[in-house]
Design goal:
The complex is a heterodimer of chains A (about 110) and B (about 120). Chain A has no helices and 9 strands. By secondary structure, chain A is mainly β. In chain A, a hairpin with a 2-residue loop joins β5 and β6. In chain A, about 40% of the residues are buried. Helix content of chain B is about 0%, strand content about 55%. In chain B, the strands form 2 sheets. In chain B, strands 2, 4, 5, 6, 9, 10 and 11 form a 7-stranded mixed β-sheet that branches. In chain B, strands 1-3-8-7 form a 4-stranded antiparallel β-sheet, with no helix packed on it. In chain B, a hairpin with a 5-residue loop joins β4 and β5. Chain B is globular and about 40 Å long. The chains are: A mainly beta (about 110), B mainly beta (about 120). At the A-B interface, β3, β7 and β8 of A face β5 and β10 of B.
Chain lengths: ~110, ~120
């Protein structure tokens, strides 16, 4: 099991809005460590989508947004497009493990 | 532009060692950390460890302690990951990424497939 918990899959029709959750604990997200989000298209390296909870790197469309509250974080995609079909991962730091930790990943299907 | 270019595919026998490289360009090498992340076939991302580009300090995933080494060559802006006593479950694509846990990893290498097979 991953230290950060994500739903295995989510889906939505083109144009819709989807949200992916990422739940941690008092030693990681609840301890104030930031959450980052990555998009991974099949056969490619991950791409940083959201940094430090809610910051979009240059070039990332504003359809992607992030938030964090307490032990949980979420990634929201609005105006869903076919090209958004990918795996999404959250990442934080765990003070008990003294390690970076990832969520198990969420597969987004665009119907 | 920032680039991380990794070495090629490796096939190793159980118990052997592997050394994967990640050559950085397009930025001040000593100003950033480099982390390694691996992904077993059909699985999620797993953090392997990081190394400071500034002073070579390292931190490794607990489950890999004792089997992993990371080094830098500042003259060539290259980071090396060495994994020893390879097991079948070390089979994965190994990625290097620039950055750390504070800001996330903003640039990634193309990945190196390491296959452990008898």
């Amino acid at each position: 099991q991953s230290v950060l918990t994500q739903p295995p899959s989510v889906s939505g029709a083109p144009g819709q809005r989807v949200t992916i959750s990422c739940t941690g604990s008092s030693s990681n997200t609840g301890a104030g460590f930031d959450v980052h989000w990555y998009q991974q298209l099949p056969g490619t390296a991950p791409k940083l989508l959201i940094s430090r909870n809610n910051n979009r790197p240059s070039g990332v469309p504003d359809r992607f947004s992030g938030s964090k509250s307490g032990t949980s974080a979420s990634l929201t995609i609005t105006g869903l497009q076919a090209e958004d079909e990918a795996d999404y991962y959250c990442q934080s730091y765990d003070s008990s493990l003294s390690n970076v930790v990832f969520g198990g990943g969420t597969k987004l299907t665009v119907l | 532009q920032v680039q991380l270019v990794q070495s090629g595919t490796e096939v190793k026998k159980p118990g052997a060692s592997v050394k994967v490289s990640c050559k950085a360009s397009g930025y001040a090498f000593t100003s950033y950390d480099i982390s390694w992340v691996r992904q077993a076939p059909g699985q999620g991302l797993e953090w392997v460890g990081w190394i400071s580009g500034y002073n070579g300090n390292t931190n490794f995933a607990q489950k890999l302690q004792g089997r992993v080494t990371m080094t830098t060559d500042t003259s060539t802006s290259t980071v090396y990951l060495e994994l020893r006593s390879l097991r079948y479950d070390d089979t994965a694509v190994y990625y290097c990424g620039r950055g750390g846990y504070v800001h996330g990893y903003d640039y990634w290498g193309q990945g190196t497939l390491v296959t452990v097979s008898s």
